Amino acid sequence: MTCKWVSSIDDNVACNRCADESGYCIFHKENKNIEESEIFINEIKNQKISDFRGFIFNEKFVTKDVIDYKYKRLSFTEAQFIKEAIFNDYEFKYDTDFNYTLFEEKVSFKRVTFYRNCSFKETKFVKENIGKKIFEKVKFKGQNLVVNNVENLPRMDGIVFRNYSKFILTNIHYEKEDYLYGKINFKIARIQAQKIGDHDRIGYYYYNERNYGSKIMKITDYPNKREYLSAKFYDSLSRYAIGYGEKPWNILIITILIISIFALLYMLTGLMTSSGDYIGINLSNISKYSISEIINIYVNLWYFSMITFATVGYGDMIVINTMGKILVCIEVFFGVTLAATWASVIIKRMIR
User: Is residue 179 part of a domain?
Assistant: First the structure.
């Protein structure tokens, strides 16, 4: 009887080993007893297996005690480590992947060296591992370390990268109590991206680093409450207005909103054209205006709001009361500030 294990991510991948009465081979069988677990490890050694796709490790697994033979690639794709997985002091000399791997207990990569590429895609760690330094004194000398959509990704500040190594960190999310580790990991990714000149990803890493950092700001980190509130205000302004400098289109959207809102306000205060015509709406007698008249008035006032925001001021329209002058001053201030911000963000991205 052939083992009935089939890959959950690729239906074309299945096991063709002989199965026992459970319907699975020794490698894919769940709930192995002690004797079966010993046979499981011995078979790995004897067959010098390097593809552990879908293997179920029921007992503690220590890599250096098992994989002491040559291989061309190590794949732990879809493997399940029911108990501890210890990779300490091991040298991964060729490409290694932990894609769709499940670590149900403690896992440790202390003093590990990666000489080639390594990937963690759709990998799942238990939540207890997030704050632990499972990557301690790790040396990564390969070309690419890819971490994508990993659940409960532990802190990675124990990894030392070579100057040419690329660290790709995408689709990683943390819950409120783990925001600190999100900040740490995206900071590491940003620094490494800056080292190798990976400009396409620097902005993404920087935004997420700042975003997680803003969520863990505490009043105890500042000399006084005033300093904290000031930092919190500017951080929120930076995040929503320009996406920490990585979302310049936010400025364009805000600009259109400001111009449109002030155009509505000018409808209430009214304007006078250079020819002496009044443009505005009398709310006490609004029923006399048709829809087309209101639209035409709004378009004219939107034009005025636009040139005011841009601080051009052609002089073909002027405000006629104190409230109108106050609105103009406020809008000019917004215009000057956002124009400078837009310029700095665009120049920053162009230089990068």
Answer: yes
Tens digits of residue pLDDT in 311-345: 877 778 888 899 999 999 999 999 998 888 888 87
Element containing residue 144 per DSSP (H, E): strand 144-148
Would the pTM count as exceeding 0.85?
Answer: no
Taking only the tens place, the pLDDT of each residue in 179-205 is 999 999 999 999 999 999 898 899 999
Domain residues for the domain of 101 are: 48-236
Q: How many residues belong to the chain? A: 352
Give the span between the Cα atoms of 42 and 73, in whole angstroms: 20
With 0-12 / 13-18 / 19 or more C-beta atoms within 10 angstroms meaning exposed / middle / buried, residue 5 is: buried
Do both 192 and 254 map to the same domain? Answer: no
What average pLDDT is seen over the chain?
Answer: 91
Unique residue bearing structure tokens 């005025």: 304
**Does any domain span residue 25?**
no
DSSP string across 69-109: S--S-EE-TT-EESS-EE-TT-EE-S-EE-TT-EE-S-EE-
First to last CA, the chain: 60
- Would you place residue 85 in the very low, low, confident or very high pLDDT band (cuts 50, 70, 90)? very high
H-run or E-run covering 266: helix 249-269
Are residues 265 and 204 part of one domain?
no
Same domain, 227 and 286: no
Query: Of all helices (H) and strands (E), which one includes residue 113?
Result: strand 113-114
